[in-house]
């Protein structure tokens, strides 16, 4: 689960990571009042679940009341497009206002679970700021790393070593090392999968200050943190994903045009590979799970059909615990209720496959049933026009 910058900064404060005083506002008048109280100059920051805001016009300095008024008017309600939002952009509903910091240097600090290393990896760079992605690809040596031993945790010397390798003077390095240790503690205690401070500014006084804050939380750990669940902002999530979660379906929206409904995460991954292999592209990942009911299947089909990007639906089921006849009933029920205007390709195998196929055939609806995976893939490719 993603959270907003202002929410991440509230957690930073609890862990002693230095941040500025701030206020979140949702109207122009509130923005003016907040800025007047904080003192000028201020920085006004659009709160959306995507980075790159600076480049998209979502971060602005203001020197006085009228500049705040102008910036807040422009930003509130705007559709903010950044390199990370995609062309659709995000609506800005909330602004964070802080006194503008005096930035002498911008560092990058991040940590994530490195699955290749089977460990948390801490990353730091002296080239922090809005071009870190470019640095990471053009000059990867500029990103320093420390791998954390899962049994020992982040050792203090590792934090100091990173800070020193950044080429900072001793006093500043000590402050940065402390922030690294604090962020690591937060990362573990709050079950994060990604934590980033970019930039971690060094102020003109040589002190670290978290200018930006990004925390991605592990969904599987949220049951341990009821207070973190409260931070969820449904405005920032795909409406189809919200619907799917409510129906207990494991759904992730992607940018292709083949809607997939599959049982089992492994088969879902293999299905997406297969779609790619024939030159098409999946519109989603949808695992209905082993114990899906026909109601869940119906809901799954409905979610796929309601996605305007979907030009063909591919139902790929290996009936084990989920029987093929249950699947077929759900699909037929959905097709009877909804007006499906795209081709639906079905590949069924496993428990009660004959009954399942019979239900589909006798429904009078025009499903394309494939005898095997290879044939299904060809049908999918034809349906979306990548082969003729
Ligand atoms: P992002 O573009 O979404 O990553 O938003 P950030 O919060 O990282 O802000 C982008 C850039 O705006 C930073 O790298 C800074 O250069 C600049 N910026 C943000 N806050 C301040 C501030 O308080 N003072 C100054 N001088 N610059 C700031
Ligand atoms: Mn940033």
Structure in words:
By secondary structure, this protein is an alpha+beta fold. It folds into 3 domains: 21-99, 2-Layer Sandwich (Dna Ligase, domain 1); 103-229, D-amino Acid Aminotransferase, Chain A, domain 1 (2-Layer Sandwich), CATH 3.30.470.20; 238-383, Succinyl-CoA synthetase domains (Rossmann fold), CATH 3.40.50.261. Helix content is 37%, strand content 24%. The chain has 14 helices and 18 strands. The chain has helices at 5-14, 28-38, 53-56, 65-75, 132-138, 156-165, 170-189, 226-229, 239-246, 265-277, 294-305, 324-337, 353-362, 373-383; strands at 23-25, 42-46, 59-62, 79-80, 90-91, 95-99, 103-114, 119-125, 144-147, 192-203, 208-210, 214-217, 250-253, 258-262, 284-287, 312-319, 344-350, 367-369. The strands form 5 sheets. Strands 7, 8, 9, 10, 11 and 12 form a 6-stranded antiparallel sheet that branches. A 4-stranded antiparallel sheet has the order 1-6-2-3. Helix 2 (28-38) runs antiparallel to helix 4 (65-75) and helix 12 packs parallel to helix 13. The radius of gyration is 25 Å and the shape is elongated. The relative contact order is 0.09. The model has no long low-confidence stretch (mean pLDDT 95). It binds guanosine-5'-diphosphate and manganese (II) ion. Guanosine-5'-diphosphate is lined by residues 43, 45, 51-54, 59, 100-101, 103, 106, 129-130, 198-199, 211-212. Manganese (II) ion binds at residues 51, 198, 212.
């Amino acid at each position: 689960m993603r959270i907003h910058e202002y929410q991440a900064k509230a957690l930073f404060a609890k862990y002693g990571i230095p941040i500025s005083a701030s206020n979140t506002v949702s109207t122009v008048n509130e923005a003016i009042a907040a800025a007047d109280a904080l003192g000028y100059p201020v920085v006004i920051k659009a709160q959306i679940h995507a980075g790159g805001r600076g480049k998209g016009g979502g971060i602005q300095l203001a020197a006085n009341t009228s500049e705040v008024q102008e910036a807040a008017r422009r930003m509130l309600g705007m559709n903010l497009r950044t390199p990370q939002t995609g062309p659709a952009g995000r609506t800005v509903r909330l602004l964070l206002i802080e006194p503008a910091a005096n930035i002498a240097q911008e560092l990058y600090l991040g940590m994530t679970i490195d699955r290749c290393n089977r460990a948390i990896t801490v990353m730091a760079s002296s080239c922090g700021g809005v071009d870190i992605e470019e640095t990471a690809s053009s000059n990867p040596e500029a990103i320093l790393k420390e791998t954390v031993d899962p049994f020992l945790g982040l050792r203090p010397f590792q934090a100091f070593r990173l800070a020193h390798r950044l080429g900072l003077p001793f006093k500043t390095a000590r402050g940065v090392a402390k922030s690294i240790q604090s962020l690591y503690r937060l990362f573990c205690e709050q079950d994060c999968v990604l934590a980033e401070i970019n930039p971690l500014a060094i102020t003109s006084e040589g002190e670290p200050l978290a200018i930006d804050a990004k925390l991605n939380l592990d969904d599987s750990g949220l049951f341990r943190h009821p207070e973190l669940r409260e931070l969820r902002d449904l405005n920032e999530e795909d409406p189809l994903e919200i619907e799917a979660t409510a129906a207990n379906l494991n759904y992730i929206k992607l940018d292709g045009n083949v809607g997939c409904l599959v049982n089992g995460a492994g088969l879902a991954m293999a299905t997406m590979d297969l779609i790619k292999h024939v030159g098409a592209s999946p519109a989603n990942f949808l695992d209905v799970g082993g114990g899906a009911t026909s109601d869940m299947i119906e809901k799954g089909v409905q979610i796929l059909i309601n996605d305007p990007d979907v030009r063909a639906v591919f139902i790929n089921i290996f009936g084990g615990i989920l029987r093929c006849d249950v699947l077929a009933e759900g699909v037929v029920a959905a097709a009877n209720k909804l007006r499906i205007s795209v081709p639906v390709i079905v590949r069924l195998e496993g428990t009660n496959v004959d009954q399942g196929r019979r239900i589909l055939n006798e429904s009078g609806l025009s499903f394309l049933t494939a005898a095997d995976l290879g044939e299904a893939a060809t049908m999918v490719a034809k349906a979306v026009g990548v082969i003729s």
